[in-house]
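Dear colleague,

Following up on Tuesday's group meeting, I ran the structure prediction for the two-component complex that the binding team flagged. I've pasted the input sequences exactly as they went in, so you can double-check that nothing got truncated or mislabelled along the way. The structure tokens for the whole assembly follow below. Feel free to forward this to whoever is handling the docking comparison.

Inputs:
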Amino acid sequence: MSPQTTKVGIISCSGEAIPEGTISRLATRRVLELLRPNATVTLCLPLFLAGNEAERNFAKTHPTITIDGCEKQCAKWGTEEHSGPVSSALVVTGILGTRAVGCHRASRDATQPDKEAVWAVAERIAAEVDTVLAETGPRDDIAAGSSGAQCSCSSPASGGKLIVLGVAVSIPGLPLIFEQCVERDIPADTGGCSALVEAVRIYRRILPEEETGYRSALLAAYQAFRSGPQPAK
Amino acid sequence: MGNEPIKNAVLVIPCSGIGKVHGLMSREATYLVTDELAPAQTDTLCLALLVKGDSEAVAAVRSHACITIDGCVKACAEKNVAMAGGRVAKAIQVAEAFKNHRGAKPGNATALTDDGWTITREIADSVACEAASLCASEEAIR
């Protein structure tokens, strides 16, 4: 497998019976769409039994991370039994501890704690993707989303453009990042600059010498976002 | 089946496919049935448990009537239940529900639009009717 084509597979248990299964599914989607769109692919876990040989070879052809809702670790177990060894195995309850209490299975019941749980798990998965890639090959521009490659099952979220120190910069999913900042009550003034930079830093590397430029560009874009129509909750 | 024993007569098992909106629709339709439309008659379990071969999950699909909801023709839910020796009383394909909604834009694998919820609710209504019919049959047998 050449470094240019290395993508990390993420297999979610998506357990239907428990809220943590919903969190595992949504967090995986968030990594595929937003956090590491050009570095990750996925496959439905049940396809290991119901699918064909190519699908069963998934974990042999991709370094794979499993994300399970509970300690039964069905995704890890199923992947290793039917496909191949995994590079890393995460468990939602292990990441969130008691923060998953009160979360919901159905998306129509989702509240702010559900959304925060999904973000926390997604960020943990993204960090694990980086670790796995660091062990398997280079990862230039993965977070920036500048390569032509895309996740096998969906397109990355639409990006947002900024002018930072006179240079045009595209940040995947910037409107969604701002949406989350609004939900976290991050103010659209200089008091919110540090939080904005930290939120974007998850998705894009910001060098120390660029930080001042990012602060002013992000603040202006965030102010424009907040003055426009807000998406439906 | 998080970790609770299954009490109700009918198991509704979606594929929850992670790559397409149809998988999300299968999942949300299941919750509409088990949580809202027929909570006393239906329950769900983790399909991943069947992939794992968990003995309780295998026993559950063998001892309950199962309605599977699949997002695509690969029919992972139906096939996995069948492979575990379960009773598939009804196998539903989400794509079938689109026949009456040509041009609908249901959303994506992460979130449903109003169109998506409309179709999902139709699927759920159909599953709830089927579950009621299955329960009535089982009562009649007793």
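The beta strands of chain A are 8-12, 40-42, 64-68, 88-91, 159-164, 167-172.

Cheers,
M.
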